Amino acid sequence: MRIGAHVDPTDPLAEATARTADAVQFFLSDPQGWKAPQPRADADRLRAAEVDVYVHAPYIVNVATGNNRIRIPSRKLLLAHAEAATAIGAKGLVVHGGHVNAGADPASGIENWRKALAYAADSGGFGLPVLIENTAGGENACARRLDALARLWDVIGEYEVGFCLDTCHAHAGGEELLGLVDRVKAITGRIDLVHANNSKDAFDSGRDRHDNLRGGTIEPDLLVAVVRAADAPVIVETPGGAEGQCGDIAFLRGHLAPETSAV
Ligand SMILES: [Zn+2]
Q1: How far is ligand 1, taken at its centre, from the CA of residue 133, in Å?
Q2: Boundaries of each Xylose isomerase-like TIM barrel domain copy (predicted)?
Q3: Which residues pair with 54 in a beta bridge?
Q4: Per-domain boundaries in the chain
Q5: For 45-78, what is each residue's pLDDT tens digit?
Q6: How far is CA 92 from the centre of its chain?
Q7: Fold of 3-256
Q8: What is the distance between the alpha carbons of residues 13 and 2, in angstroms, rounded to a whole number?
């Protein structure tokens, strides 16, 4: 199982080495801004690296919203990120499920997702797997609770999309982690990436504050159980820099190792 971390984008391979990570995830542009990603000088190194690369789309991307001043640039920015992520050999582009505004019909968010994926397909496709991530907050989110995720997947499942399961978001979003992998796979058929994070906040708080795997309100063994069941690459998006994340990676490796039978 490949285990890595979300890192600073300046020199992701050095960050991977500092964490003994098999994989890295990073942003290609300001996560709160609309600027398109720029070509990277280290593209050849990233493509050739042993380390698996994942890209996280900016947080502001919301292809579901009814606000067309956000929805239209979101579509374009998502596609621009897919192209830039493909250029560095990324294995996937993670994007949050998004939400519609209070009072708006959640079905419109799903239809907007379909249009965004149709737009991408008409533009030549993404070029790499786009992984929709569950989110912690919002009453009108497309991928906070599994009932909403099921309605979304009914419509977009025919497109080339994957799923990224974030354990902090699931817990804070109000989904029990016990048995979660099976419940998600019954909807999506797949989990392509796990974001293994503990949560500083309570179950169903709707808040998105990650903690180190042995901190927070989630029983650490439950995180290990989710990671084991998902059997997908793992990224920790936890605090504490290289030291904190190195500890989280070591914790997962230690607990995922095949148990030695006492014969
Ligand atoms: Zn995440």
Answers
A1: 7
A2: 21-248
A3: 25, 92
A4: 3-256
A5: 999 999 999 999 999 999 999 999 999 999 999 9
A6: 9
A7: TIM Barrel (3.20.20)
A8: 15
